[in-house]
Design a protein that fits this description.
Oligomer: single chain
Number of helices: 24
Structural class: alpha/beta
Distance between the termini: 83 Å
CATH topology of the largest domain: Rossmann fold
Number of strands: 19
Number of domains: 3
Helix content: 25-40%
Shape: elongated
CATH class of the largest domain: Alpha Beta
Radius of gyration: 35 Å
Strand order of the largest sheet: 5-4-16-15-14-6-7
Largest sheet: 7 strands, mixed
CATH architecture of the largest domain: 3-Layer(aba) Sandwich
């Protein structure tokens, strides 16, 4: 009955009639089957059991993608969710290692900076270092093994390739590796060199080559001409009062550019209390160094050879290395008498008045600051230009102060151009049974006269490890996805020789492997075990490099990112006496006033656009 209206409401006719059955039901908690419940089970417990039954029944009918989760129910030590962690690591660009400091959030790398303790980077990075994090998450990275057979492509997995490789390389080993060729990108990894030596030991007749579309082969050849051995120059901008760059870009495209920029900028503040440096740039392109130069002279790249020869003669004249003719001195002509015999024309006929004044002023400045000046040539210049530059630095007493030399780690290897020419010839002659390519895209960037794409198809078996399915992958028997440097273990050496370790910062996002893992598998005949990212190979190399207790030194190096004191020791080698006769045999021709095409590397060469890649693969849609 309602308290407000006095109206009575019934829930059923049984309640209205007041039957004994209804009265009995009111005294029972559950209207049906309540008495069948066992004693001791409460209403709360019964609801729990029924709820669990409903949930389990619903789960049985669901389907979802299998995933692995790493819950923080038990938080790992030294880990607070959401708090960033920084790890010292490294990666390699063009055969030169870079010391990095990578910030990770909950196991995901998000930001790349330079390692401030690394002797080369000193906390600085360039566009290639910053782009490493973008390459890691690039959705266009290859994620599957591809086999091409009888004109058809099949998607495989690593187990299929491992079975093929086990049989194939066992047969090659029985034949001493005859017909086995390996082509890799430029690398400074000591572990790679060790595994490569092991591969050649197991396959004595195998041929190992190295190729980069933009290499520093001319620098190596120039040092060979000047010193009789291959040396690597290192430049100290912190001591250089005058810097002269002949088609060189030390502040931009140089393995030690980040170090050069810091040392150069330290002496650009007039209020710093130290000297204020000056930069001269003679170049054929618009470079970072040219944009910052105090004096810039645009010249054709082919004219740099004559500029260097004129500069060398002017400096030698001022230093008094060559006696002057009395008749010329009396007439007021103080030019080097040997200059006219070595140049096709007089400097006045070769250079415009403004250009000649530039070269003369540069020669004067270099001589006045000898011992604190610096002259360098770019990688595109021929070997004789580099040899002249080495001799000029020696005359100016710059060797050992602003310029240091170290031995080249691997000096007996073919030049990159000679390597790709040799490999193409072997392919055309049918001498290549198996070709392994670790990185690179020679079908796209090899010189056009090599016709590497046509030659590649003559290999019986070709294997290409690449982060992307590119032009080279499309012509190979096997395409293998390559792991990112932040996903696997590795090691590198920077341009001055500092040894650095690359550690995995994230579980492999895709199914890629590194070149070190492939080399180790080819040597042992066994594929890498699950979760084996190559740590033991790096440790074996590291333990052979340090005299300290291995475990303690490993932990310290892993924390710092590099092995302290591992840079190459400088060497003092005089210029060979036969250099002049070698240079005299090289014809110095007058510059040609014609159109000239120059290929150079830069940030735009980092990676081609996605559309261009798809267009090369034939999957891009073009307008009708």
């Amino acid at each position: 009955m309602s308290r407000d209206t006095g109206t009575t409401y019934w829930r059923s006719l049984n309640e209205l009639q007041g039957t004994p059955q209804f009265e009995e039901m009111l005294h029972r908690e559950f209207p049906e089957a309540a008495s069948e419940l066992p004693d001791g089970i409460s209403r709360r417990r019964w609801l729990q059991l029924m709820g669990a039954s409903l949930v389990l029944g619903g789960v049985g009918g669901c389907r979802w993608e299998a995933e692995q989760f790493a819950p923080f129910a038990v938080r790992p030590s030294n880990r607070t969710p959401g708090v960033p962690q920084r790890f010292a690591t490294s990666h390699e660009v063009g055969g030169s290692g870079r010391g990095l400091l990578v910030t990770c959030y909950d196991g995901r790398p998000t930001k790349v900076e330079g390692n401030p303790d690394h002797p080369l980077s000193e906390g600085g990075t360039d566009v290639f270092d910053q782009a490493a994090i973008l390459n890691l998450y690039d959705p266009d990275r290859s994620d599957s093994v591809i086999e091409q057979s009888a004109g058809q492509r099949f998607t495989r997995d690593w187990s299929d390739f491992d079975r093929f490789a086990s049989r194939h390389f066992a047969a090659l080993k029985r034949g001493n590796g005859k017909g086995l060729f390996l082509l890799s990108e430029a690398t400074s990894s000591p572990t790679y060199q060790r595994l490569l030596e092991e591969l050649q030991k197991n396959h004595p007749e195998a041929v190992c080559l190295e190729y980069e579309s933009f290499s520093r082969d001319h620098e190596r050849s120039g040092a060979q001409l000047a010193f009789g051995r291959v040396l690597r120059p290192h430049y100290d901008f912190d001591r250089a009062r005058v810097v002269a760059c002949l088609d060189a870009d030390p502040l931009g495209m140089h393995p030690a550019a980040t170090r050069h920029v810091r040392d150069w900028a330290a002496h650009r503040d007039p209020d710093s209390g130290s000297f204020f440096n000056r930069v001269y740039s003679v170049e054929s392109e618009l470079s970072v160094t040219g944009a910052q130069a105090d004096h810039r002279l645009p010249m054709q790249s082919s004219s740099i050879r004559l500029i260097t020869a004129i500069l060398e003669a002017l400096i030698s004249q001022q230093l008094g290395d060559f006696p002057r003719e009395t008749s010329r001195s009396e007439s007021g002509d103080n030019s080097d008498p040997r200059l006219a015999s070595r140049l096709p024309l007089s400097p006045e006929e070769i250079l415009a008045p403004g250009q000649l004044r530039f070269v003369e002023a540069l020669a004067d400045d270099l001589v006045q600051t000898r011992g604190g000046s610096l002259l360098m040539a770019g990688p595109a210049q021929p070997a004789d230009v580099h040899a002249r530059v080495h001799r000029i630095n020696d005359w100016l007493e710059n060797s050992g102060t602003t310029v240091r030399y170290t031995a080249e780690p691997v000096a007996g290897r073919l030049s990159h151009r000679a390597a790709i020419d040799f490999l193409s010839a072997e392919l055309r002659e049918g001498n290549v049974d198996t070709l392994i390519m670790l990185g690179g895209n020679p079908v796209y960037d090899a010189p056009v006269e090599v016709q590497f794409g046509d030659a590649l198809q003559k290999a019986k078996t070709s294997i290409h490890l690449s982060a992307y399915r590119d032009e080279t992958s499309d012509l190979c028997t096997w395409h293998l996805p390559r792991a990112h440097a932040f996903e696997v273990w590795g090691d590198t050496r920077s341009s001055e020789g500092t040894y650095s370790i690359s550690q995995p910062l994230i579980e492999p996002l895709l199914t890629g492997r590194s070149g070190l893992q492939l080399l180790a598998a080819f040597n042992t005949g066994n594929p890498p075990a699950s979760g084996d990212l190559g740590k033991r190979f790096i440790q074996e190399t590291f333990y052979s490099l340090t005299p300290e207790p291995p475990e303690r030194a490993w932990d310290t190096t892993l924390h710092d990112g590099f092995l302290a004191g591992s840079a190459c020791e400088p060497v003092n080698v005089p210029v060979v006496s036969s250099l002049q006769s070698t240079l005299d045999a090289i014809s110095l021709t007058p510059p040609q006033r014609s159109l000239e095409v120059v290929f150079f590397s830069g940030p735009g060469c980092l990676r081609r656009t996605l559309f261009e890649q798809r267009l090369a693969a034939g999957t891009a849609r073009t307008a009708q």
